Amino acid sequence: QVQLVESGGGLVQAGGSLRLSCVASGSFLRINDMAWYRQAPGNQRELVAVISSGGSWNYVDSVKGRFTISRDNAKNTVYLQMNSLSPEDTAVYYCNANVVNGFGWSREVWGQGTLVTVSS
User: Fold this and answer.
1) How far is 109 from 12, CA to CA, in rounded Å?
2) C-alpha angle 93/111/113, rounded to 5°?
């Protein structure tokens, strides 16, 4: 069983910063893409940023220049550095990973989510 555990959410004032972390644990062969999604109240879950095992990344337009995704493959960890936060960034942030098991099968795994609240 593979688990993703997020941390780093909380309450911050507009213009502030937070760093989210997500650690994968359990039995798997490797992790392909890792990503951060978010879901604000009343909205659909949206992809915020994704990073490949080789370090290539992509961002949703609304966070470009403010958020940075990175990963440490040795620690099976993905990070999301969030700067210049605005109230529009308030949401539950979810970690996602494409995990490959020993048989070569891949599946999507989700974390439980961490709440980020940005006050104006």
Assistant:
1) 28
2) 35
- Asked whether residue 1 carries a pLDDT value surpassing 90, the answer given is no
Provide the token pair at 41. Answer: 């109240």
The predicted-structure confidence for 61-109, as pLDDT tens digits, reads as follows 999 999 999 999 999 999 999 999 999 999 999 999 999 999 999 999 9
Which of 109, 112, 114 has the alpha carbon at shortest distance from 32? 109
Q: What's the number of CA atoms in the CB half-sphere (13 Å) around residue 95? A: 30
- CA 92 to CA 113: how far, in whole Å? 6
How far is 106 from 68, CA to CA, in rounded Å? 26
